[in-house]
Design a protein that fits this description.
The protein is of the alpha+beta class and 189 residues long. The chain contains 6 helices and 6 strands. A 4-stranded antiparallel sheet has the order 3-4-6-5. Strands 1-2 form a two-stranded antiparallel ribbon. The chain is globular.
Length: 189
């Protein structure tokens, strides 16, 4: 729903003559912040890696004391419900380890979601079944980068997402556009 994401989506939508649907649940996660030595409202995807590793357990990561009193649980529910609503028309339902596949998707086409860094990292983690703090502390996606996930059917009625690339900016390099490091917190000081 943020203007910059809508503007980026417009280029693809115009080129392919496709409509754009705004999904409010894909909004940036700027309401999920934690206090830190840098600032009182540090975005969760900027928690320093050493702090993330020491204070956020791999199991039950949402129960970490760092997240107490934040909007994280509400945002993760919102994301979960949004993903379910997005994938349901394709016959996909979340199950442990992936997605129950209710119909053949070989002719279903592609789906593009345009969003900002925190939402993009969290959405990718959610679809891949990876705890978001692992992605938050380990990955970066530049503005206007492209992350590609493939839904792979490994069994007759089961599929899972596989990441083909994350944060690809080759389209910017081809156009000789500088790839900004906006969104990186620690290298910007």
């Amino acid at each position: 729903p943020m203007g910059r994401a809508r503007d980026a989506a417009a280029y693809t939508a115009d080129a392919l003559s496709l409509p754009v649907e705004v999904l409010p649940w894909v909004r940036e996660m700027d309401d999920v912040t934690v206090p830190s030595h840098l600032r009182d409202d540090l975005a969760v995807w900027h928690v320093p890696p050493r702090q993330s590793v020491s204070q956020i357990p791999a199991e039950d990561w949402m129960q970490a004391s760092l997240f107490k009193g934040t909007a994280l649980a509400r945002r993760m529910r919102e994301l979960s419900q949004g993903v379910a609503a997005l994938l349901s028309p394709y016959g996909l339902r979340s199950v442990p380890g992936g997605y129950s596949l209710q119909r053949d998707l070989s002719c279903a086409g592609d789906l593009a979601v345009f969003c900002h860094q925190g939402a993009g990292l969290t959405l990718a983690a959610f679809l891949l079944g990876i705890p978001p703090p692992v992605i938050w502390r380990s990955c970066y996606i530049a503005p206007t980068s492209v992350t590609t996930l493939l839904l792979e059917q490994s069994e007759q009625h089961f599929a899972s997402f596989r990441m083909l690339c994350m944060g690809n900016t080759s389209h910017l390099a081809c156009a000789k556009v500088h790839v900004p490091l906006s969104g990186l917190l620690y290298n910007q000081r």
